[in-house]
Amino acid sequence: MTESSEIFIQGTCMQMCPPREIASREKQRRLHFFETIAFTCPKSTSSSQQDKLKADSRAAVKEFSRSAAGKSIDPSDLRPASVLLRTMNYLIREIASKDSFHPWQVIYWFVFDRIRAVRQDLVVQRITGKPVVEIFEKACRFHILSGYRLCESPLDAFDPKINNDHTTECLKRLLCFYEAELPSAYEDTRTEFEAYYLLHNLGSFEALNRAVTLPETIKNSFLFRLVLDIAFTFMLKNYVRFFRLVKKLPYLACCTVHKHFNHVRINALASINTAYFSRNACLPVRLLVEVLNFNDMQETCNFCSQFGLEVTNTSVKLMKGNLNSTQPPRVRLSNMINVKLALNTNDLISGECPVTRALVKSSAEAQSSHASMPAAGGNNSKPGESSLNSQLKSNVLELKERQSWFGRGRGRGRKTIQ
User: Fold this and answer.
1) How far apart are CA 256 and CA 19, in angstroms?
2) Which is nearest to 149 in space by CA: 349, 367, 416?
3) Residue 98 exposed, middle or buried by CB count within 10 Å (0-12, 13-18, 19+)
4) Residue 317 pairs with which residues in a beta bridge?
5) Please, which of 90, 181, 218, 374 could form a disulfide with 214 given CB 3.0 to 4.6 Å?
């Protein structure tokens, strides 16, 4: 190892954006609206147009730029760990939380770029420790949430592949930080993100192998046990059980697994077509809506027609042979996931979801035994605990249920829809 490689650079910039960059971008008119006085101090005066070109040093955030080869790094352009954490908190609390006033697409591209700059400063300075873990936790939640919220956006406005790559990178870096620290330091949050990593990589043997070798404290968590069950169900292509288990996940976990919905639906449709084809055989559209978790009948018809199936308003006619391999439509927002949202964006990205916390801390065995016993001491429960406990009981009971959709052989065990 050379002497130069052992030198650690320590940033000295105590602002979210170096003053030199603020002046340069203001002169070149490269300021984002969120960095101007027009955003921080909105006024209905004739000078509002001029304010859009004027930087607010308290709101300007360092933008991402690739390092030039052979160019030395000025410590005054780097922010220390405390400033980077403050910058990350600002992006979530002051920018991402404004989704009621600004389109999420606009918020996404600004926060996405600034988070890349934060990560770049962390890498250059080789910073580790609790601030870095907190930064990456919020970065992961932001990318997961954005991947779901913008799934219907056109490709020229949002590229799911790029967002997916950054989600993967942030999750991997975060899990590496967890492994480098004491196991008890981040026990609860690590379980949450180990679950996200497995959901994000459904179908990956590498992710599944990692999951089964994790510490018992993580594997005994009810949330992780549920996610592991979903991963095995995905591998076995049990589409009915897959969607039934997904419905028990908290909001962000559903956002993570949402990108796999169409993959499961395609395999399910191919299996149904092969197993149940006969002359003039038709499936009720309402049946597919329920089994494959579509939003409505129109979405189901559009999806099936993409594969050459003959579709009417109420039924889908099966075809002989394999389905036509065309490009399926992009996955749409899910009503099932939308109804789970009960927090604002700031609390969601900051990890303040009480349902997720409860599922992480709950032991699968304890909840299973508790669900089979009558409740005792109901008057001693805290406000809000009764509804949460009932949901946990429902989760356990649902895990034990067996659906009879298309079960027990051809023509038997089906649920009929009038």
Assistant:
1) 38
2) 349
3) middle
4) 282, 310
5) 218
- For residue 125, the SS3 value is helix
What radius of gyration do the chain's Cα atoms show?
25
Query: 3: how many CB neighbours lie within 10 A of its CB?
Result: 6
Q: In terms of DSSP H, where are the helices of 277-375? A: 285-291, 297-305, 335-338, 345-349, 354-361, 364-371
Return the number of other C-beta atoms located less than 10 Å from residue 146's C-beta: 26
Pairwise CA distance, residues 373 & 386, whole Å: 15
pLDDT digits (tens, 9 = 90+) for 192-245: 999 999 999 999 999 999 999 999 999 999 999 999 999 999 999 999 999 999
Q: Tokens 């018809």 label which residue?
A: 301
- Distance in angstroms (rounded) separating the CA atoms of residues 357 and 263: 29
Query: For residue 212, what are the contacts with CB-CB under 8 A and spacing of at least 6?
Result: 219, 228
Give the sheet arrangement for strand 282-284, strand by strand: 282-284, 315-317, 310-311
Q: Please provide residue 267's backbone torsions phi and psi, each rounded to the nearest 5 degrees.
A: -65, -40
The pTM score is 0.84
| 13 three-state secondary structure | coil
Which DSSP letter does residue 33 get?
G
C-beta atoms surrounding 18 within 10 Å: 20
Tens digits of per-residue pLDDT, 237-274? 999 999 999 999 999 999 999 999 999 999 999 998 88
For residues 300 and 316, what is the distance between their CA atoms, to the nearest angstrom? Answer: 9
Q: How far apart are CA 227 and CA 245, in angstroms?
A: 8
Q: What is the DSSP string of 201-262?
A: TTT-HHHHHHHHTS-HHHHTBHHHHHHHHHHHHHHHT-HHHHHHHHTTS-HHHHHHHGGGHH
Distance, CA of 11 to CA of 8 (rounded, Å):
10
CA distance 195 to 225: 9
Opening angle at CA 261, ends 255 and 266, nearest 5? 170
Burial of 319 per CB tally in 10 Å (0-12, 13-18, 19+): middle
